[in-house]
Amino acid sequence: MRMRVRLLLAALGICAAACGSRPPLQAAPRSPAHVAELPRGKLDLRLPTRVIKQEITIEIRDVASGLGFSGRGVVAVLPRHALRMILLGPGGTTAMDVWIRDGRFRVAIPAVSRVTRGDASTPRSTMRGMPVDLLWRLLVDPFGGLAYARSGHPTESGEIAGEGFTAWMRRGEIRARYGNQLRAWFFEQGRLSGVARGEETEVDGAIVPRTVDYVGTDPAMVVRVQGASPMVVEAVPPALFADPDQG
After folding, report:
1. Selected residue with higher pLDDT from 66 and 187
2. C-alpha closest to that of 195 among 140, 124, 138, 150
């Protein structure tokens, strides 16, 4: 059975070789009382308001098993509401189909006949190899639940200084933007659960991630996302963000 599973994973472009130990998570920055808060109107948020799609390459490695997945495809985002991502594997077949809408999600891996559905109450420990929260926070609802922000970005020493701004969100996230750089720290039940860093780009007057490197502990995974050719979708098919199981 184990050999059969490995062969199926290989058909998806998944390797069982371990890629080294998980790098340590950088400590989250502290909110410095001596740095004045910035009004929301002063923040360079430039959030998307229209549907944006882009080509995407994603690599995922589950730390516990050492198994990994990589694929190329397209992701479309309805700001603050929904995402649809389809990745292709060898031979151009669908390797992974991800649907997220208003807190619910569905992840399908056709080659192994696996479909996983859930929502905000789904234990994150059961979502190994599924970066649903990462996609929601970085692509669908960036800066969601913004509580306050301060001028400057976290330095390697953890201090807040220099250009840009650092924001604290009520949903358990700290996020910094400076130049074309992004940094983020994610928390679950008060514990640091993941760290992301990458670069951003502009499309239609909005800022979207271009590359993201993420290291998580709950579930333990390493993710790399590379985006390209972002563009606004003028005519959105109704089925694009509809529940695939309700068609």
Report:
1. 187
2. 138
Taking the domains of the chain in order of start, what are their residue ranges? 32-227
Say how far apart CA 206 and CA 229 lie, in whole Å.
Answer: 14
Q: Is the pLDDT of residue 16 over 60?
A: no
Please count the other Cβ atoms lying within 10 Å of the Cβ belonging to residue 90.
12
Is domain 32-227 in CATH 3.10.450, yes or no? no
Q: Model-level pTM?
A: 0.84
Closest among 223, 231, 38 to 138, alpha carbons compared:
223
Instruction: Give CA–CA dist 134/122, Å, rounded.
Output: 15
Q: How far apart are CA 62 and CA 65, in angstroms?
A: 6
Angle at 17 between CA 16 and CA 22, to 5 degrees: 110
Q: Beta strands of the chain (E only): which ranges?
A: 52-62, 68-78, 82-88, 94-101, 104-109, 114-118, 146-154, 160-169, 173-178, 181-188, 191-203, 206-217, 220-232
Tell me the pLDDT tens digit for each residue of 213-222: 999 887 788 9
* Amino acid present at 126: T
pLDDT of 23 higher than 50: no
The lowest-confidence range among 113-127, 168-182, 231-245 is 113-127
